[in-house]
Structures are given as C-alpha cells and as structure tokens.
Design a protein that fits this description.
Layout: E1 4-10, H1 16-22, H2 27-35, H3 41-48, H4 64-76, E2 80-84, H5 89-104, E3 109-112, H6 125-133, E4 136-142, H7 149-157, E5 161-165, E6 179-181, H8 197-211, H9 218-231, H10 238-250, H11 257-266, H12 274-291, H13 295-302, H14 306-345, E7 352-356, H15 364-375, E8 379-385, E9 390-396, H16 403-407, E10 416-419, E11 423-429, H17 433-443, E12 453-457, E13 459-461, H18 469-476, E14 490-503, E15 507-513, E16 519-524, E17 538-547, E18 552-562, E19 568-570
Helix pairs in contact: 1-2, 4-8, 5-8, 5-9, 5-13, 6-7, 8-9, 9-10, 9-12, 11-13, 11-14, 12-13, 12-14, 13-14, 14-15
C-alpha cells in the first residue's frame, strides 16, 4: 500500500473565541463554537439550540411562488401531477414528502423513480413518456432535473408543465418555460444554497400548504427532510443543521408504520444521532435503489399498513446485506487494480480510475469513496456494460479538490456527466476509458499540501481521565455532526495499553492509561492489523463515542502513533471508520 504522509496539527484558536468566553460561554466550548462560525454569544446560542424559527421562509426561494401557483391550479382543475425523484435517500424521501402532501390537499398524483440499471440517474425521456401515459399535466422533479434539458423540452412539447426542485450544479441553459427551484441557480438570492433535494421538497410542500391555508405538519416534514439531508452529506450548517437537529429530535415520535419498522429493523434507539441515519437507516433505504428499483423504499415510507411495512423493512434489510457483498467485491478488486496501476506508473497518480465488467454499478460510488479515503486521491470507478459499449460510474474527491470542475473539461467526450465538488457521476464509451484515464492522470497535478493527510485536533487533553461523561455530554451539544460540522478530534498522549482485545471482524478494544494513572477506553474499527502500535508508549487521535455495554464514553480511534513522533506514516485501515462524523462504527 502506498504510504500517505500524515500530519497532526493543533487547531487555531479563532479571535471570536475570546469574546465568547467573556460573554459567559464555557472556555472549552468557546473555541469549538468560534470555529463553527459563532461570532458572538447570540450565534453560539443559536448554534447550540436550533429552533423552528431559524427556518427560512420558503417563498424566498426563486421559483417557489410560481410552482405553488401551478400546483394550486392543478388541484382546482383536477389535473394529474407526476413526481419524478431520484433513487437515493435524498430523492426517495423528498418524493415521499411531496406525494404525501399532494395527496393530503387533494392533488391527484403518482410517482416515478428511475431504475438505476435500466434508466441511470435523473429525469429521462422514458420518464416523460411514462408520465404522459399516466395523463400528467405537471411533472415535479425531486433531486434531479437541473441538467435534463432535452427531457424537459420533450415534456413541454407534450403540453406538460415542469417544475424542477434540485440542488445539483446548473449545467446547460435551463428551459425558460419550466420552473426551477434550485438555490444554486445564479438568479436565486436565497440566503442558504446548500439545501438538498429533500430540503427543497420540504420548502415546496410548506409553501403549498401555507398558500392553501392548511396547517404545516412540521414534525413529519422534518423527519423526512432530515433523512435526506444527513444521508446526502450536504454541509450540516445553517438551515441544514436546523433541519437535521429538529428532524432527529422528532424521529422517535414517528407514527408512520414504515419508519417505525425500519427503525426497529435497524436496531437503533433514541436519542438518535446523525450516525444512526447515516450508517443504519440510510443504507437500508438506499439498498433497493442501488441494486435496481427504489420503489420498495418509497412504498415503505408512505405505507400505513403495519404488516406491509414489516415485510418491506425486512426486504430492504436483506437488500442491504446483498449490497454490502457487492460493495466489498468492488472495493477489493478495485484496490488490487490501483496497486497494479501504481506499480506500472512507478508512482501514485493524482487521480485513480478503474473499471470492470463484473462490477455492480449501484455500488461503485461507495467503493470509490472508500478508496479515495484509503489512498488519499480522488477516485473514479466504473461498471462496464459491454452490451451498451459504455461504462457508468461515480467519482469521489478530497477536501480542496473540486472534482466536478476538474472532470468537466472532458464532459464533451462523455455520454453523461454531472455532480458537484465532492462527487460526480458519468457515463463514457468503453473505447474512451484508457485514453481518458491517461489524460486525467497527466492533468491531476494537485498542490503537495493537498496530498498530505492532515488531522486537525481541537481538544488536547493532558490527562486521559479528563475524557469523561462531562466532556462527552458537552461535545454532544455540538451535534449533529457531519459534513461541514465534523466531530472534534481529541488528542491523548503518553498512553500505555493495559488490554488489547480483538473482537468482531478485525476490530480492537483497547484499555489504556497515562503516567498519571488516567484511564481511557479506545475502540478501533478494523484496526486488528495495527495492534503493534499499542506495544509501547503511544499517542492517539479519536472522536468521542459511547459504549452502550459499559455505559461510559469511549474514544473511537482515527489515528495512532508512537509517543512523541512527528509526521505519521498513514496506515489505510485508519480510515476504515470512513466519514463517520462521531467516530461510530461503519457497520453498514
């Protein structure tokens, strides 16, 4: 495995933290809050206590008023509205939210979700044809449609109005006759441009109910939007943080048969965290769409039949286990291909690319993310379809490398291309694969500092005993954690292991103490082949977690090294916990 140089760096103390301390914010929270954008005590209070009043009026979004007017006309004219969503959690939850709302206000509606293997991503001509056959007078897209110029024009030519609610980066010129709800469109002045598809569905549904003089059922809306927001890994700051926080608080009170069955099948208990969604609920909702059709996931979220909900939850659980097997196959085989490529080139290229006709294209994105973390390089993996003479895949990037902008230079040679800074999707001809990879490798010359794995720790404890319940609860107040609000990294130094015990599939449980006899519990997911680091005196970086069995805090390991060492040679399995913002096990 190529070595990735790693640095441990103490986070800076922002200027605003001193003002927060003077305003009465506890010292150990002031710096943490200042780094998360709190400039004064009011900001800090708002961050720690998200409220419904922090949600922005939906009508500030360009296109919402026009969309609501058209939907009200559809209701009054008994016109059919067809919703076209995406097959991931964001698209499915947004679709479920809108379908339930439209039905509740008397709009005749039905939904279409793309089949990943047959249709690929987004609004397609086939969906327009299906909507037309169902008598649609309006198509509403969720989490797709921004770049679907040709299908939108086709719908318009059939006399079907189109409303696009999407958060992906605008591409080709958008048809002027269609309505676009996208905070990233240049003409939109909405104060927050990071809402996901489910967040936009929340806004559109809220605006529709308000126009009709109906009460807005915020709790179920927030539950559904939080699922999409957390699963889609949009930045958990601003309005997304409010949606995620309030949605998590509302999740235990869910009365929906589908969500209740899914929660039970996922074996999670309140209080729920972002990890419970990201690594328990979301993978099960995603599984159906990754392997084929997401229709079962949508039905689960909408059904009121408890026996049907239990059956669907079991089916999604089975599909998730199957997805895990496919994902492991792609990850292992792609890793071997990357090794061979590095040996052939004599170096690790700036961008990794691999493909196979034996891979399931529903899981290549997850595998690409895992390899991007392991090798610390942007990674593109593609599943080859020899019958179509093309390959469809996904790419995942690193912080600081805008993968969409980089690959967009070759979009003219791709059959399909889209995405954003950290993730892209593409379809290319088989004949182009070798040439494109060579060009990507040649042009991917990133600044050296981006190729160093940098861990910035925010809490440096002098005594292991200071990692206690009090600190855990204080850090918990900064959640929900995720992209844009990572869990604080904690550093402990000068530890000696008093117990190292393997468990599960390659995991480690470590008990350690320092020279002052301070004691700490550590857990390393997939760390069994790193146990030699615990033979002497060592330092660790980790995230605060909770041991349900022991009823006490535990530090989830992110990295470890011999005590007093400088830059650390990175071991890839240190990334086995992936993007888990709270250091929870990536069991899914």
């Amino acid at each position: 495995m190529p070595v990735v140089p790693t640095l441990w760096v103490a986070a800076d103390d922002p200027e605003a933290s001193e003002g927060l301390r003077r305003g009465g914010v506890p010292a150990d929270l002031a710096s943490l809050l200042a780094r998360r954008g709190a400039c004064n005590v009011e900001d800090a209070r708002d961050f720690l206590q998200p409220r419904v009043s922090h949600l922005l009026p939906p009508t500030l979004l360009r296109g919402v008023d026009e969309a609501v007017t058209r939907l009200v006309a559809a209701k009054e004219g008994n016109e059919r509205v067809v919703i076209v969503g995406d097959y991931d959690v964001d698209g499915v939850t947004g679709t479920a939210l809108l379908e339930a709302t439209f039905r509740a206000v008397g709009i005749e509606t039905t939904s279409i979700l793309p089949h990943r293997l047959k249709d690929g991503y987004g609004l397609q001509e086939t969906h327009v044809e299906r909507a037309s056959a169902r008598g649609a007078r309006v198509i509403v897209t969720v989490d797709c449609g921004t770049t679907a110029r040709a299908p939108i024009q086709s719908a318009l030519s059939r006399g079907i109005d189109v409303i696009v609610a999407d958060h992906h980066l605008p591409g080709a010129e958008f048809p002027k006759q269609a309505v676009q709800i996208n905070p990233k469109q240049p003409e939109c002045s909405y104060p927050f441009d990071e809402l996901c598809g489910a967040g936009l569905a929340l806004k559109l549904a809220t605006a529709l109910l308000e126009r009709l003089g109906r009460d807005v059922p915020l709790a179920p809306f927030l539950r559904m939007a939080a699922l999409g927001t957390i699963a889609d890994q949009v930045p958990l700051r601003g309005e997304n943080r409010v949606i995620a926080s309030l949605g998590l608080q509302a999740l235990p009170a869910s009365s929906g048969a589908g969500l209740k069955s899914l929660i039970e099948k996922s074996a999670i208990k309140p209080p729920f965290t972002a990890d419970d969604i990201g690594f328990r609920l979301a993978p099960r909702i995603n599984a159906a769409g990754r392997l084929g059709s997401a229709e079962d996931a949508l039905e689960l979220l909408l059904t009121r039949d408890e026996s049907r909900a239990e059956l669907l939850a079991s089916q999604l659980d089975d599909a998730n286990r199957e997805r895990q097997q496919y994902e492991q196959k792609v990850t292992d085989e792609a890793r071997s291909m990357v090794f061979e490529r590095c040996e052939s080139l004599g170096e690790v290229p700036g961008l990794l690319a691999a493909w196979s006709d034996e891979w399931h294209k529903g899981v290549v994105g997850i595998a690409a993310g895992r390899l991007a973390r392991e090798f610390h390089r942007p990674t593109v993996l593609l599943a080859v379809d020899s019958t179509q003479a093309n390959a469809t895949g996904s790419g995942r990037s690193l912080a600081g490398i805008h993968l969409y902008d980089f690959l967009n230079r070759w979009s003219g040679r791709m059959q399909r291309f889209g995405g954003h800074e950290m993730a892209i999707g593409l379809t290319v001809s088989i004949d182009e694969l070798e040439t494109l990879r060579a060009e990507w490798e040649r042009e991917a010359a990133w600044p050296e500092e981006l190729l160093v794995r940098r861990y910035e720790y925010e809490v440096d404890l002098e005594n292991a005993g200071d990692f206690d319940v009090r600190l855990f609860r204080r850090l918990l107040r900064l959640g929900p954690y995720g992209n844009g609000n990572q869990a604080p990294l904690i550093r402990l130094s000068g530890l000696r292991a008093t117990m190292v015990r393997p468990f599960g599939k390659g995991h480690l449980k470590v008990l350690a103490q320092d020279q002052s006899d301070g004691r700490v519990s550590l857990v390393g997911w997939r760390w069994e082949d790193r146990r030699d680091v615990f033979e002497g005196v060592f330092d660790v970086l980790g995230m605060a977690g909770w041991d349900d069995y022991m009823g006490s805090p535990t530090l989830t390991l992110v990295d470890a090294r011999a005590a007093g060492a400088g830059a650390s040679d990175h071991h890839p399995d240190a990334e086995a916990m992936g993007n888990s913002p709270t250091g929870a096990r990536r069991a899914e």
